[in-house]
Design a protein that fits this description.
Rossmann fold; seven-stranded mixed beta sheet; 9 strands; alpha/beta; about 250 residues
């Protein structure tokens, strides 16, 4: 698990993959903009970003927060996160922690908590999230479908990847959140990544980005060779990229 989490420490590569996903997604609406249609961020003042990375979620947020705190295991992300957070809030803090872990902040302190593509790493954090969230606050989760990359399973079994995503997925997230929060809404984000023959280098990079997940089941280079061969023969490949947004309130 630690190796997978460390794979998110390369900010430039992570940003490059974000651009590839944006370019090759069938759904051209940024999922962060979908969240902004649901939530009026100007109503919230103290934000906690769990598994914050370099600040991907913050990029799309308005300014005007009183306090933003990011928690991530990769201290390589600290500088980039704080650079973004300081533009959005009067005060910003980054804390290196391996989640799940108790966070040394008062109960009910944050009126917004976010976990974007990260809660499947630490689903046991939910009791602590509930403690930290203001009674009138909101918890925002963005997560993958458990069927992510299922097209590749025609050739390979990704059992460990599937097990990880199923810790908190689009399919089971509602039932998990309802154990902790009284009010839970969800919004589907249908999408697929479509690679054409000219996108072979992008496919290589995408597989490299997922290699820490894949290598628990099969050699990533074997996956790369097979899928590049398929792309050349079929002229295009598509992969499940369905995500879901959850909005939970006490």
């Amino acid at each position: 698990m630690e190796k997978i989490i460390k794979s998110y420490a390369d900010q430039s590569f992570h940003k490059k993959i974000s651009l590839i996903i944006k370019k090759l997604s069938k759904n051209k609406e940024d999922i962060r903009n979908e969240v902004k249609k649901i939530i009026d961020f100007k109503l919230y003042h103290r934000l906690l970003d769990l598994g914050c990375g370099y600040g991907w979620f913050l990029e799309a947020l308005p300014e005007g927060f009183d306090f933003i705190m990011g928690v991530d295991y990769n201290d390589e992300n600290e500088s980039a996160f704080l650079s973004l957070a300081q533009k959005k809030a009067k005060k910003a803090l980054f804390k290196k922690l391996f989640l799940p872990s108790k966070i040394d902040m008062p109960s009910c302190y944050f009126d917004m908590i976010v976990s974007a593509y990260s809660l499947y790493f630490f689903p046991d954090m939910l009791q602590e999230i509930k403690r930290l969230l203001d009674p009138k606050g909101v918890f925002i989760v963005i997560t993958h479908s458990s069927h992510m990359l299922e097209e590749g399973e025609r050739f390979f079994k990704f059992d460990n990847l599937r097990k990880l995503i199923e810790s908190f997925s689009a399919e089971n997230g509602y039932n998990i959140l309802k154990q902790y929060f009284d009010h839970v809404e969800y919004y589907d984000y249908p999408n697929e990544l479509i690679f054409h023959e000219k996108d072979s280098h992008a496919l290589e990079q995408y597989i490299d980005f997922k290699s820490a997940f894949i290598e628990q089941d099969v050699d990533p280079e074997t996956v790369k060779v097979k899928l590049l061969k398929e792309l050349k023969e079929k002229k295009f490949l598509s992969f499940n990229k369905n995500d879901k947004i959850f909005i939970a309130r006490p």
